[in-house]
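Illustration: histidine kinase.
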Amino acid sequence: MTLLNIFFLSYYLLFANLSIQLEQFPFTIIPDIAIALVFGSSAFLIGYIAYCHQFFSHPKLFTLFIALLVTFSLISILDIASLYIPLARVQGGIKLLSAAIAIWTTREFIANTLQTLSPSHRTSSANKSQLVNQENEGSRQQESVWWENQQTLNNIFEYSLIGKAILTPDEDWIRVNPAFYKILGYSEADLLQTNLRNITYPEDLAADQHYRDQLLSGEISACRVEKRYCHKQGHIVWVSLSLSLVRDSMGQPLYLIAEIDNISEHKQVETDLKLIIGQLNLAIKDRSSELDTAYSNLKKSAAQYQDLYDNAPDMYLSVDVDSTKILRCNQTLMKELGYSYPELVGRSVLDLYHPDSRSDAKESFQTFLEKGEVRNGNLLVQRKDGTTLNVSLNAQGFRDQQGKLKYSRSSWRDISERKRLENQLKQMNAELEERVKNRTLALQIAVQSLKESESRLELALEASGDGWWDWNILTDETSWSTQFYQILGYELEELPSSFKTWQSWTHPDDLLRIKTLLKKHLQDPSIPYVFDYRVRTKSEQWKWISAMGKVVAWNDQGEPLRMVGMHHDISERKQAEQELQRINSELIRSNQELGHFAYVASHDLQEPLRKIGSFTDLLADRYQGQLDETADRYIRYITDGAMRMQGLIDDLLNYSRVGRAELKVQPTALSSILEKVKSDLEKVIEKRQVEIIIDSLPTVAVDPVLMGQVFQNLISNAIKYCQADRPRIYIRATQDQKFWTISVQDNGIGINPQFTDRIFVIFQRLHHREEYSGTGIGLAICKKLVERHGGQIWVDSEEGKGANFSFTLPK
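Result:
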């Protein structure tokens, strides 16, 4: 705005105000208010513009003009107020002040106008205007550069392939680039409606809060972490997050800068690798028992091979081709040369040759390098003590995959004696030479056989024995090892690799059971998936297979994706089990029939036996002493025989009941059982003055009644077969990890060791009835009772040195 425009505007406003003052009517209130607002706001606006744009070339004139506008505004306000309050004097004073300021403003305006029109001032003004224009041009250039930089930064942010975002310190979005929201599957609008915490995987929230607290507290200025976000589709996105905090000049947090790079594929590779390792560990674990057995057999084979290798009549050694150092040798070589194993291994084989023979040895070695073998080389070897030994050298080279010789397996045969004979029998005929050739051929065959045996051993070491299977649950694709195809008699290309193929092989009676077990395992992997089933071979035969499997991969929803497992041909085992089951069934049936027969026969025999006994007693009562001695002796024979027969039948009934009685097992103190047995045998113990010593006995799960019968039979036998002096019985218990061993030891007549097994057979006696009474069933009953409790019984004894009956009971 020029000074001239300001001047005319001022006077226009002045006269307009004077004309308004002439109109002293009430309806002028609204115009007065408007005029007061215009003058006041104009004064404020002109002062603000002058201050902001530095228009200070005429500061006094601007100040007077602003003051003039303020007085005009006051006059309008007083005009309004005078309608209600007498303010004539105040109005007059303000108008005088306004007139004075107007005159002063006019004077300053005229003086500045004349100065502006002078030539010197125009030149100065032109210079100043040029400076202002230059400053403005520089400002515009700086603004243009600043704008270009901003546009470049904006393009870098928007078109970056790495996700970038600017967030508030509270992790609310300020700005995100397309790469950021595309990685997470959102549109920009959808993403800006949430915040960083809402899309973070719940398990990573605590770690995010920790890093944010460190950034805000100043512990760190930036961080880089691998974390998970929730994709809009619901799956997890793994990213590498770089997060930094920008602060203002006062150190207060302004905003966060975040950069993310999608590493989901990298994480999937890691997951797949862990899955493969888990599968390998599972396969190793599942096959551990078979491998242990195979390893044990291989160890035996290896031990046999090592024994054959070490004790072979020839000297064997393996030599590294590049260094000529000995890698391995057998015991025969060490014995022949007098060296220990550490003295030979790592030593050059050329050092073992006699100096006179080293040139021949080097020549043989050169032949070996050219042909890969040496046959029947005659060399002189020097022992550790300095003596020499003539040997026949045979060497076979072994090459790597590139065909380069790596090491040799050599044999030295002591031919010292042969050399001596050759020196003495140089004139030997062709027959002898032919025999030598045959011997050499036999040696070659032996070496070849040894090589073949070694190859078979190495092949056995690599063999795994059983087969495996792998089922992709989503695609239904199934693969099997070669062993399984061999079991079925098919070639690999003959059958499609699918789960339906496996179902078509499986026996219909087994398929429903397997599917039920499979469904349970897929729902709960802790339920073992182990089963035996039948498969149909190519020749339409059924084979039994033992299989197991396990789910090894799931999706994010926990649904199974993949199963792997092992299988083993158990057809022979199943046949053996079926045969064993048939034999056991036959045996159980025979035992039941035998027990029933014994019980019925014994029961039916008692009735006629009672009649015989009754009538024999009548004969004895009526006719004893009336007949001759022969008749009386016959009557006694009949009576004794009937009594023995009754005892035998009773024992036979007891033996039959032992096999059929229900076993009522309960925790029982053996000492309490023994106390009852002692009470039952109290009279005979006192009569025979038997000393019974009982050690501390355990509490065991047994049938107290049947176990009491075992102790009563053993103690009764010990008393029956005691020595003439005072009998002594010692009862004690020992234990191992699984069983208690109870021993009943006496100082009786003892038992010949060759009969220790016979005494537990029913009706087997070692003494005549005239010497010792009994039926020979008591120990058989003891054996059956102990076996029903899951134990075993035996006796250790010598004639004249007492007997020690022992039996075991499970803990």
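Reading the tokens back as a structure: The chain has six domains: 22-108, 162-274, 276-305, 306-413, 451-567, 663-810.
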